[in-house]
Amino acid sequence: MSQTTTGREDRVPDVAGGSLVEGFRSGRRDRQRLEFLGQGGAMLALLGRIGAAFLRAVRTGHFPAEELITETWYTIRVCTLPALAVSIPFGVVLALQVGVLAQQVGATSFTGAGNTLAVIRQAAPMITALMLSGVAGSAICADLGARKIREELDALEVMGISTIERVVMPRAICIVFVSCLLTGVVMFFAIITTLLISVVLLDLSPGTYLASVDSLASPADLGLSLVKAAVFGVICVTVAAHFGLTVKAGPAGVGDAVTTSVVVNFVLLFTANFVISQIATTFMGGPLG
């Protein structure tokens, strides 16, 4: 009897310890969920403040044009070549895959339409958004974070200058504008690449390629691509600015904020692309929506 009792007593701490560990893990998951919701709410609030600052600047005429021009030129300069460096190889791979598949199923006459719609509706805005979030977005986050830990942003607020209106809003307008602009550039080079590969390597006549594009593509596809580019630009700058403005723990915190902002941007961009594509498919039709 004593041995049985002793065995039960020995097992009690294990059960209690397991319950304690499980409770700790559950509490940590709850804190992570609450933190996630808090971050999302803070980003939406920041987006609202950026929109209000833009409307106020337009109404009052106090628009930081010099900051906007400087940031726009910097963003174009650092993002154009990386975007083209991705779009051209992507066009090669896309043309080969679509061309080979079209030959296997006997639908070579639709090769041009498949390549072009894939580039316009999906590839061009996504390539541009990923380059902007990885290059310009990280630069915005690092710049705002460095100013935050040096208390420059606090100094602006003390002097009565709105940080959102003076620093964040010009960058938001810049990213949206450059996103739409670079989407068109990426679109052009990717389509030209798919055309050249289809003609040179797959022996498809240029007339057949362009005829299928003309028969299936429409201006609505271009509009969808530009809408995606604008939405992706808003997401990119909102996430980057949020993590830059909430930096803590000094220079190490700036590095962590930049890494987190890029990861969160990528996740949100792919999610937004899926949602917009499904909405467009519902109202516009087409398998590549």
Give a structural overview.
The protein has 289 residues and is an all-alpha fold. The protein has one domain. It has eight helices and no strands. It has helices at residues 2-60, 65-105, 111-149, 152-158, 163-200, 206-216, 219-245, 250-284. The radius of gyration is 25 Å and the shape is globular. The N and C termini lie far apart (73 Å). Keywords: Membrane, Transmembrane, Transmembrane helix. Pfam families: MlaE. The chain crosses the membrane at residues 79-102, 122-142, 172-202, 222-245, 257-280.
Provide a brief overview of the structure.
The chain is mainly α and 289 residues long. Helices cover 89% and strands 0% of the residues.
Helices and strands, with pairings:
Blueprint lengths: L1 H59 L4 H41 L5 H39 L2 H7 L4 H38 L5 H11 L2 H27 L4 H35 L5
Helix pairs in contact: 1-5, 1-7, 2-3, 2-5, 3-5, 3-6, 3-7, 3-8, 5-7, 7-8
Distance from N terminus to C terminus (CA atoms, Å) equals 73 Å
Task: Give the percentage of residues in beta strands.
Answer: under 5%
Helix content: over 70%
N-to-C SSE string, H for helix and E for strand: HHHHHHHH
Number of DSSP helices? 8
Largest β-sheet summary: none
Rounded Rg? 25 Å
User: Whole-number average pLDDT?
Assistant: 85
Q: Which structural class should the secondary elements be placed in?
A: mainly alpha
Characteristics:
disordered N terminus; 289 residues; 89% helix; mainly alpha
